[in-house]
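Here we describe the complex-level prediction in full. Unlike the single-chain runs in Section 2.1, the two entities below were treated as one system.
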Amino acid sequence: MIKRPIFFCVVCCFFCVTKMHAQNNTSPYSMLGIGDMEKSMFDRTSGMGHAGLALSSNRFLYQGNPASYAKLDEHFFYMEVATRFRSVGYSGAPITDPAQSYSADMQFKKIAIAIKPRPGWAISAGLLPFSTSNYSFYGKKNIQGSNLTTDAYYDGTGSTNQFYIANSFAITKKFSVGLQTSYLFGQLQETETIEGTVSDSVLSTSRNIFIGNPYLKLGVQYKTKITKDWDLSIGATIANKTRLKADYHLLVKDGNSVLRDNEYYKSNYFTIPVTYTGGIAAIYQNAVTFAVDYNYQGWSSLNYKGISYSLVNSQKISAGAEYSKKLSYMNQAFEKYFFQGGFFYNNSYLRIAGQQLTDIGATIGAGIQLARSGLGLQGALEIGTRGTTNAGLIKEKYTQFNITISYRDFWISRKMKKYD
Amino acid sequence: MSLQRTCFYCLLFSFVVFSCKKVDIQFGDQYLDNDHTQVIKIDSFGVDVSTVYVDSFVTSGKGAAVIGGYIDAVFGRINAASYFEVVPPAYAEPYVADSFKTAKFDSIALILKPDKSYSGDTTKPVTITVHQLAEPIVFYDNSLSNIYNTQSFKVNITPLASKNISVRPNAGESIVIRMDDNLGKALLKKYQDPNDADIKSNDAFLQYLYGFRLSAGSNSPLIFGCSDSVIVRLYYKKQGLYLESRTLDLTLANKAHQFNNINVDRSASVLKNLAAVKEINSSLSNNTAYTLYAAGAMAKIRFPTIRDILKLPNYTKILKASLIVRPLRGTYGATSYTLPPQLRLSSADLTNGIGYDLTFTGSDGSTGSQNGNLVVDNLYGEGTSYAYDLTNYIRAALLDVTINANGLLLIPFSPAMETQFGRLVMGNRSNMEGKMELLIVYAAVQ
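The structure predicted for the assembly as a whole is:
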């Protein structure tokens, strides 16, 4: 009984710590679109190059594919929380001050729960990151009617998240489907601060964009034994094209006096294209896993363009492998620990100055299952680069470390069931 | 590893293994949608400038004696004379009469200390004449204790002194003018007479000697200022073991009774009608306006169309408003007319009375009157200008139409305003030789 309070204490501490230091990582490219779209699910695939659409587990939540929850054990309550430390080093022509070439932060990233109320039906709910925007810089703003400029400071911050409920059904023993119904929501704030060179007070324009929209993802998984030692699994998802609606709140202040305080509505703030993903995994003797995923988003057809940038079709390939040490107890296999490795290559949806930004990285991961408890700990280290120094752009070299704490306990007590 | 220990290490990691610093990366302002607030500069608002007649002004108690005269092509013939009273040192009985018993008169002189202000031609000599007043100096109105530039007092016909001198205002030399010996002898005689009451109190002395007037001839090429610490010095010799040279100084008695009579003959100037019409718009005087307060002219500035800014698209707020006043090229120079080193902008009332000054607030929170921060472009002259921050004034004028109704007066600070002759000939918006500009930077929010 002592385990539950300790677990929830840990969860609360993670909340508090990560809230305090949230979102300090500057991401210059996040000023475009709705920010940097999150590629990680902060689950067990984080150590496998984020590959795992075809994977499922009776113990852990694989959140890339909603069909995977159907493989969870019955009668259990599952919970996972994740936090992420990320440090980024910047290089390129715009980086002239060494003191401004590094940032780091730690953020709370995920909370998810799942239960399996019926043998063929599992349900999961949670909060996942979708995108983040965080940038700041000093710039010059033109004074119209003159050839003069004034100093301005630009700051953007915010994120979009998805609250989801996923239902997963085991159609057959080998085939399952899942539907994740999400509500994308979040706030993106852009602030322009014009310093007192043209005014005796600071002129600030703050635009808050409140986003809210449903978002659906359908997933399927099929798993079969192809030889005595080998299992093969395939999975796929499709997420619908989604037009994000937004409420704008424009606040213009001169010092402390409000000059303009407007709210307006935009029915098509940003459109997320149809997203296709597919994956295949091979499992050897229920211990060694190889997985490959492919992800495609057709941004080009949306015709998002701006000065020297456009959104283009994005593709991501990720692959990983895992070794899992399992023990047998009373004819059941229990995982003791696992090790993972993987890599990914992502042609992102941003093309700036003729350069399509890439995101390339490698991951390693490990996890343990604490003995005689429902607690599991997973850690994943990711090292990668994004962007380029060509054409005056910025390259980000990042190191990321995820910790996911999973917890499982009886949803309906076996004792209670026994006496029913 | 126990469960508790695992949790502990997790938390420790959370607290320790990261830093939190958001960095500024100068990238991508072209990608931002930052047009909600536009900063717009506009200089097309009209500035109405005119020259206003000053019929009289207080010159008493200004701490400066102005003497001389000169011809200004714009403002006319300006003449100034200074009136003042002097009194002897405090009388100490019975010592004074004894000490003067054997004294022999030598001379008596007036000593002036130029204060470096001048206008006109310093290469030509000035004839300075000293007259003894024939009537006491009194205030125009005792309740105000003021004496105006238009006032004068009778003097004895025969001058006490008249001297042709070359004034070198910046040399730091005193000007010494020897006066009529009879004045000195009579004064010495009073000191030798222990029963003479005239030197025993200031009031009694001023009944005996009303004061002096310092003036220059009608053809004077130069007007210059002196400190009001005028001294009338009696030189005498005293017989002792050997003959000693001694002096007795009579000093300014009452600063409030020291004043300058300043009169202007505009009959041959471009402002010859100013006294009659009271105000000449710059559009009627070659797009030019004039400020020389001591010569009875000051520029008045109004912004008749300023409220039209409220009609501009998306206008939200004035961020900065600046007034640039430029002297006409060729109207000033180191060897000709000098510009006033400081000019303030003061509000005006219906009768063009001077109200409050436009002020500035320094970075340390201190406040003061704006002085124009004169910049002189000695090379081309195009950059010579006075600049004023009108932000608060224009903002207030947009809220209250009465604030801008009477305009702003462009004048020096007192006492330079009444005692110095630096002058400004400025253009209006249409005068390319010295264009006046009202520059407004405002925020437009879409």
